[in-house]
Amino acid sequence: MFAAIDLGSNSFRLHIGEYVNGVICVVKSAREPNRLAAGLDKNNVLSEEAMARGLEALKKLRAILDAYPLSDVRAVATNTLRIASNAPVFLQNAEKVLGYPIEVISGEEEGRLIYLGVANVLARPEERRLVIDIGGGSTELICGKGQEIERVESFSVGTVRQSLAFFHDGIIDGASFEAAILSARSQFEDAVDYYRSCGWTEVYGSSGTIRAIAEILAVNRIGDGRFTLENLERLREKMIGAGHLNQLKLDGIKAERASSILGGLTILVVLLKDFGIGVLKPIEAGLRMGIMWDIYLMATEKDRREEAIREMLKRYQVDEQRAIRVANYALAIYKQMNPEADKFLKLLYWSALLHEIGIFISPTNYHKHGAYLIENADMAGFTAREQRQMSRFVLGQKGNLRKLNGIMTVPDAIKAVLALRLAVMFQHSKVNFKPEKIKVRVKNRIEMTMPKEWLNLYPTLLYWLERECDWWEEVGIALTVRTV
Q1: What is the Cα–Cα distance from 313 to 307, expressed in whole angstroms?
Q2: CATH code given to domain 303-483
Q3: Where does the Ppx/GppA phosphatase C-terminal domain start and stop, copy by copy (predicted)?
């Protein structure tokens, strides 16, 4: 049983589910509205009140989490916490309240997870589709076929922003609607040609706002009740006729969601009209379902991160034979040191595979270029924490160790850094490496035993070992090398 938490711009949401016979069944859902995005000022600073609302919402979600036997929990934050300048302050407190790490994901990663949830619920491998998700702070458009994404984009327009910017104090009139539609159109205009031509046969709406509008169209018998541009225009006229959010007399509109529905409607009118969408189909799947599928797939052979690593190797023209050799060396050395847990095993292996990607930019200081690329690339499936950790490993593959500061207090991280450094050293010195030929122990000091003949067979090895001893001594760790 696992849980997915979405810290959105309009509300915080939770799914708890379990994998049963090929599908993920949701056993518990919860939604805590807090309109976090409404607490952003013109400088993108979150107000104290907004942060307090967010923490209170997380307390309620934590109480639900504590009632279930969960094997894994993943919490992600989206647009508002991507752009808030004081997000780190909120996130530090939020993680304490929730009891789990919170990852701020990119718009592209958000789109990938949304599509993953939709694709696995539909299970139609040949269908070409467009998936639309409208959140409080951003809108994601994903075009793909079956399980494969062909294009994913995130646009900085969402329900909360539209509502706050164009419908002041809840007043609804034609001029405000036109201004809101024009603003939304400006966000999407460069993408229209592609999405009109990408060949989709079905269009799905995965967000709560889209499902809410679909319900309003159906229960109020607006037009034929379908999600079409014509019926959205009818709904628009009804809203303008009401004149104010408080005066809306439509079944299915909850007071706390009325402004989001209003803002979302302005975006949907643009998308259906400009993208040539005949009928949009709401679907009960999206980000949280995608997170749960991601958790499940990471625990199987279908880890999306493996594909992301292959894409990086190809993009930066890495010598794969060298990369695989170093990765195998590093893993063998690391395992020999008996790490306390397995959490760095995959990250170390992937870091070793990518250790030379920085050469694509320049052979000089390639470890620094590689570290930057890994930390800042959009690597599907990876959390920001994982990318930062891999970035630190790649940065620490050579040279002084002082630059690693924070991670040198974690025993398993020290072992991982040492394993990668030794693997790179043996590769550079052209050592015919066999893991059984060396022994490495790490406690309060590092002790390494290696064959004496290596010093004669590989002339540069002694030089690098002497430098390595000095570098470890600089951070207060003794390294001794014995030959036998």
Answers
A1: 10
A2: 1.10.3210.10
A3: 305-467
